[in-house]
Structures are given as C-alpha cells and as structure tokens.
Design a protein that fits this description.
Elements: H1 7-10, E1 17-18, E2 20-25, E3 31-36, E4 39-44, E5 47-53, H2 58-66, E6 68-73, H3 79-85, H4 95-99, E7 103-104, E8 113-114, E9 119-129, E10 135-146, E11 155-159, E12 163-166
Antiparallel strand pairs: 1-11, 2-3, 2-6, 4-5, 5-10, 6-9, 7-8, 9-10, 11-12
This protein binds flavin mononucleotide.
Length: 170
C-alpha cells in the first residue's frame, strides 16, 4: 500500500546510493578529489557517466578547465577518506594528502587513479548540461582499471547525513 507524501519525504527513501570519488588535476599540476553521489551510467557503447556536480566546487572548475577526470569506486573501508573528499574544497586543502589516498598515474588523462579503489574509470568530458539546479557533467570512459583484489566491496551512502557503509549480500 502507498501513502501520498511530499516529494522531499519520499526521496529520503532513495538509499542505498552509490558514492564515487572524482579526481581531477588542474593545469598547475595540483590534483584534487571530491565525493559524488549523483552519478549513473548514461551510455553503454561507449560507456559514459553522468555526474551531478555543484558549479561552486573546485572539481567543477577543474573539469571545465581540463575536460578530464577520473571516477573511482571507493571500497567499503574508505569511509574516512570519502568524508574528507566530500567536506572541504580542493583550492583550500590538499585533500589527497589529508585523506592519505594513494595515487598512481592514469593511462590517458592527467587526473590520478586512486590505487586502493575497487575500480577507476578515466573520463573525457564531452558535455555539461543543466536541466535543473545542478550541472550534469557527461564523461566518456576512455580507459579503466580494477583492483587486483577481486573481493573488495564498494562503499555506499546508506542513509541521510552522508552515512556511509559497505553493502553486502544478506
Ligand atoms: C557522500 C557524499 C556525496 C556527495 N555527493 C555530491 C554530489 O553528488 N554532487 C556534489 O556536487 N557534491 C556532492 N558532495 C559534496 C562534495 O563532495 C563537496 O562539496 C566537496 O567539498 C567538493 O570538493 P571540491 O570543491 O574540492 O571539488 C557529496 C559529499 C559526500 C560526503
């Protein structure tokens, strides 16, 4: 049975929601990392992602400048790193250093891979659209990498207030 409620109330039931870490690198060479929950696959051939990224974020500025970024899937124990990536701005804090994230060079883009992530997807930005109040960045995946440990599980947002946890089969 369904009860009619305000849209704001119903959307609170959306969890679990995936969370990713988006890395970028400015033309000055400085890397950045940001947490993003609003992401989905937008094309299968070629694989593309669409990400809702706040226009006030440093990441948005860097992606617009370089047209490149990396989408990394944090593993279930990367909660602290993900909260750091999602709680301050890269033009004020070196979040990669603060979070102690290990990085390595990507193959086709200048943004770094996160060595400990479940998977990394190198993306070329192909468009930015704004159908609502959030800019949607569309990226085409041009190279991909997976962790050598195949058993790592992804981190998800499991409830309001950025409550993060691994999601495991029951
Ligand atoms: C779990 C989580 C999910 C988030 N999802 C988004 C998102 O989808 N879009 C967005 O613009 N910001 C999102 N944020 C907030 C950004 O990560 C945050 O504003 C960050 O400080 C921006 O970093 P930057 O300015 O260095 O790019 C999220 C934060 C957390 C903790």
């Amino acid at each position: 049975m369904q009860r009619h409620v305000d849209i704001d109330k119903a959307i609170e039931r959306k969890y679990p929601e995936q969370v990713v870490l988006v890395t970028s690198r400015g033309k000055d060479g400085k890397p950045n990392v940001m947490a993003v929950g609003w992401i989905c696959v937008a094309s299968g051939e070629p694989i593309m992602f669409i990400l809702g990224i706040d226009e006030d974020s440093h990441t948005f500025e860097l992606i617009r400048e370089t047209k490149e970024f990396v989408v990394a899937y944090p593993h279930e124990f990367m909660k602290d790193e993900t909260l750091i990536a999602g709680s301050c701005h890269g033009d004020e804090v070196d979040k990669i250093a603060k979070a102690g994230l290990n990085t390595q060079s990507a193959k086709k883009v200048k943004a770094p891979l996160l060595s400990d992530a479940v998977a990394n997807f190198e993306c070329e930005m192909i468009d930015i659209i704004k159908p609502g109040d959030c800019a949607l960045v569309i990226g085409k995946v041009v190279a991909a990498h997976v962790n050598t440990d195949p058993l790592l599980k992804r981190l998800c947002t499991v409830d309001k207030g950025h409550e993060l946890a691994g999601v495991r089969p029951i």
